[in-house]
Task: inverse folding
């Protein structure tokens, strides 16, 4: 298991390095000068050139990438060009809002997806199974930004049940929670369908396993077999799926934070791209990429620790 964890961590480092290299190449290919955009049209050529040197834009792109990566390993994500604030401070200020949004989105997916998937598996071929199948495909097909817009219109504008924008008053948990409901629904609704389909398929497979047939032969109650044994096995693959889902939810968070005017990493990156504040872009993308990789590594290790079948494969 230790060797497997080390291999997964090594793969994670390679993924982060590759993602950041692609980001730097994309930044290099985007037309326009970030220093000119930052200073505005009234800036003199000397001022622009001084800011370019300060931002490191006068160096080759490979050298910019190497300097950033070497500093990031030491915990230094650079500084904002104009304000001089450490990028790490700027990113960490916004990170809790996005983490709360992701956790809430996962809560929607798990709380609705697992029961629906189990219901569809237990009643395979029934009307309930077909309804869950149609609903799963429907919520997967609808983009998160469409869910965000219509949730805002229906629940905040027309019905006035929930607040439309913002993250709530600091220190007021109830107010923050009500401001979180609609954005988290927009982020997590599509994954209700993914989780439901995964649980249904995994549970149908688990119900045909030999130890389940043995439990039936011993006369154990069907409800106990279904929900204590089969469902427990069926939930394990959803851990890996949720690890992948975190990356999708991070991208969906950009739309949710913009539509609902929430603070967060997504809105921070969007605003930074508009003004070509590339130190913030690279720092925020690095933090979210590392978070995504660590969640996936943790999910894989957890599945390996909990599932005897995976442990036996790793032990070979």
Result:
């Amino acid at each position: 298991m230790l060797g497997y964890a080390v291999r997964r961590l090594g793969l994670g480092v390679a993924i982060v390095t590759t993602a950041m290299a692609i980001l730097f190449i994309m930044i290099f290919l985007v037309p326009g000068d970030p220093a000119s955009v930052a200073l505005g049209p009234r800036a003199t050529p000397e001022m622009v050139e001084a800011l370019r040197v300060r931002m490191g834009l006068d160096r080759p792109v490979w050298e910019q990438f190497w300097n950033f990566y070497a500093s990031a390993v030491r915990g230094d994500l650079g500084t904002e060009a104009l304000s001089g604030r450490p990028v790490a401070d700027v990113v960490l200020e916004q990170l809790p809002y996005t983490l709360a949004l992701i956790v809430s989105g996962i809560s929607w997916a798990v709380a609705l997806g697992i029961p629906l998937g189990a219901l569809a598996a237990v009643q395979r071929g029934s009307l309930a199974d077909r309804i869950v199948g149609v609903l799963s495909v429907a919520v997967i097909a609808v983009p998160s930004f469409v869910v965000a817009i219509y949730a805002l219109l229906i629940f905040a504008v027309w019905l006035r049940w929930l607040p439309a924008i913002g993250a709530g008053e600091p220190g007021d948990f109830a107010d923050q929670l009500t401001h979180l409901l609609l954005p988290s629904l927009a982020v997590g609704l599509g994954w209700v369908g993914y989780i439901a389909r995964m649980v249904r398929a995994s549970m149908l497979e688990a119900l045909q396993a030999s130890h389940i047939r043995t439990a039936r032969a011993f006369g154990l109650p069907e409800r106990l077999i279904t929900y204590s044994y089969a469902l427990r096995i069926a939930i394990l693959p959803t851990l890996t799926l949720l690890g992948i889902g975190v990356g999708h939810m991070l991208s969906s968070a950009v739309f949710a934070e913009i539509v609902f005017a929430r603070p967060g990493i997504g809105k921070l990156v969007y605003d930074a791209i508009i003004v070509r504040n590339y130190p913030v872009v690279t720092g925020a993308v690095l933090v979210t990429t590392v978070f995504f990789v660590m969640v996936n590594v943790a999910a894989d290790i957890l599945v390996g620790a909990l599932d005897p079948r995976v442990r036996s494969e790793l032990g070979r």
